[in-house]
Amino acid sequence: MRTARGEGLRPRLIDRAVAAARPGWTRSLLIRRSAAVLLVVAALAIAAFGRADKDAESVMVAAHDLLPGTELVAGDLVARRVAAGLVPSGALRMSRDGTGKTATGVIRAGEIVTDARLLSPRLPQQLTSSADARLVPVRLSDDAVAALLRAGDVVDVIGPEADVLAVRAVVALGTERPASSGLAARSQSSAPVVLAMDQKSALRVAAAGLDVALAVIVH
């Protein structure tokens, strides 16, 4: 019985294998349908990539890490296409827009560079929302405090007689600078902090800072 059953099944299996290997109408139809599906998928992918590239905008990004105080050269910026919805306000479009300007804080490699990240005539107004804002270099009495300040920090400036010279001034550029050595490195700690503040406060701070180092209170 087992032999007969096995012999009865064997031709059927062989027939199925032969039929599957033989190019017939069913197999041709399956191939055509598969090819059609692949073509549709490819067309959709091409359309999607084309639409994404069409909606992208060219902006300038940092070619490598940039430290505060770095004066940008053309090689510090590279163009990159970014989806329009991800482009921040004030993004640089050409390398010449940033060449010669100074970074106010650390800018990481690949980061989109905006005008707010660079020292410019518009920066004081952007930082303080004051139309008459000015930038004032301030030498602080405590180098340790100066080293803690970063761009965007808000401080009050205090004079030698504990008088308040400026309220809510914004740090535009801290004392952190590109690495240096020798005498330049030793004098780096005493570099001034650049603060943005309204015009009246700027005049008071600049006048007081001519004779003595000033102090700040960090918000």
UniProtKB/TrEMBL annotation:
Identification of the protein by name: SAF domain-containing protein
Coiled-coil positions: none
Keywords tagged on the record: Membrane, Transmembrane, Transmembrane helix
SMART domains named among the record's database cross-references: SAF
Spans through the membrane: 30-50
Signal sequence interval, chain numbering: none
Residue ranges of domain SAF in the record: 57-119
One Pfam family from the record: SAF
Domain of life: Bacteria
InterPro entries: SAF
